[in-house]
Amino acid sequence: MARFIVSGVLVMAAALLAVPAQQPVSAQQVPAGPPQVDMARLDYGLKARALAEGVYVVEGANADFTPANGCNIINTGFITTGAGVLVINTGTSRLYGEQLRALIERTTREPIVQVLHLNLHPDYFLGNQAFAGVPIAATADTRAGMQREAASYETNLYRLCGDWMKGTEARLPTQTIGPGPLRIGQRAFELREYRGHTSSDLVLVDKTSGVAFVGGLVFADRVPTTPHADPKAWLAALDVLAGQKLGTVVPSHGPVHQGQRGLQQTRDFLQWLDTSFTQWAGQGWEMNEVLRAPPPEAFTRWAAWPVEYTRNVAHLYARYERAALQRAKAHRATPLATAWPGRCSKLEQPASGSPWIRMGSWPAAAVARFVPGIPAEAPGPVSRCDNPFRRRPP
Questions:
Q1: What does each C-alpha distance from 267 to 74, 80, 196, 262, 364 come to in angstroms?
Q2: Where are the domains of the chain?
Q3: How far apart are CA 113 and CA 92, in angstroms?
């Protein structure tokens, strides 16, 4: 059966063969909240909660990866269209994917006709084995990232999650998709592509209900994850998303909510992180000092604090240090007492006449690498300035 993509519009022959609308087999009201996990039986306890007619979320724990929660910390979802079911992300493991598929089949009689991935992270696609034979779509950047990272994802999650990962092997998307309109059966969707949390972050909006699956762009009551993040680009994406008048928001991590609560939380955290890391790197703080600095109290009440924040520092802080060193390059021809008043008693020049600094808390080779013109070893007298960037926190 032919399937192809033109200008961001997914056209599927299967979607044109409308299936008569069916009432869900299980229509009982499901309360919000994480599932009840049974570790002994390796049962995720997945539940489908209706957000609107035909629109379901399958909630994970708002927490960090642990065997106790089955490493299920993602909200996946599915939508009935009259022509079949669209699945949004497939979870952390082969077992999760199988249990998700069984849940969908208990909930609706419509066949599964499409899987969509919103970014490259492992809990978005490691359940793909359970959807063999179903078209699976992602952006080109997301697919390339999955291919690049798949082996390390498998290794790391086996180590973190144990038996929950048995038999899990990465299966990559089979289709490439981009931003634009998407129609399946009686449902019209809009796909919007941003960047910042990763290099390609899709948001899926159901035009009928207004429910928005926002992927990793928005976190609610949880510390954002940052292994592939660009905080400044992420903040710019949130500014655009804020103008979209969101209704029901399904973040990949954290509770489903209305409006911009999660978006504002994510923005507040990223603004604090970007401003603080820039300041602290400019002052020469080391990572241990950054981790000891007191954060805004509200952040410490979020899920995955402090573990995820420790990862934020590990993922991002070196980038801010490099930027601070690059800024120092602009000062290397400026008398040190002018560039950093009050930090140095005297500037002494090597024989070559080129000013240089021995960095008290930085390896000389690293300084030479990131700040061209400052040699790793002194060709002449040493300045009596011990790292002009450095100021310990109070």
A1: 20, 32, 12, 9, 36
A2: 3-220+245-257, 330-394
A3: 21
SS3 readout for 189-233:
EEEEEECCCCCCEEEEEECCCCCEEEEEEEECCECCCCCCCCHHH
CA neighbor of 100 nearest in space, from 75, 71, 122, 63? 75
Type of residue numbered 49: R
Give the whole-number percent of the chain exceeding pLDDT 90.
73
Domain 3-220+245-257 fold: Metallo-beta-lactamase; Chain A (3.60.15)
The model carries a pTM of 0.80
**Cis, peptide link before residue 296, omega less than 30° from 0:** no
Confidence of residue 245 (pLDDT cuts 50, 70, 90): confident
Nearest to 390 by CA among 274, 315, 285: 285
Whether the Cβ atoms of residue 157 and residue 137 lie closer than 8 Å to each other: no
Angle at Cα 84 formed by Cα 81 and Cα 88, nearest 5°? 80
Distance CA 197, CA 118 (A): 11
Express each pLDDT in 88-145 by its tens digit. Answer: 999 999 999 999 999 999 999 999 999 999 999 999 999 999 999 999 999 999 999 9
Calpha distance 288→301 (Å, rounded): 21
- How far, in Å, CA of 119 to CA of 253, rounded? 13
Nearest to 18 by CA among 78, 80, 79, 77: 80
- Sheet with 112-116: list strands edge to edge: 49-52, 55-58, 76-80, 85-88, 112-116, 136-138, 175-176
The pLDDT of residue 179: 98
For residues 178 and 203, the answer to whether their CB atoms sit within 8 Å is: no
Distance, in Å, from the CA atom of 385 to the CA atom of 343, rounded to the nearest integer, reads 7
Read off the DSSP letter of residue 165. G
What pLDDT does residue 29 have?
72
- Segment 18-77, tens digit of pLDDT: 444 444 444 447 788 889 999 999 999 999 999 999 999 999 999 999 999 999 999 999
The sign one gets for the Cα dihedral 373, 378, 382, 386 is positive
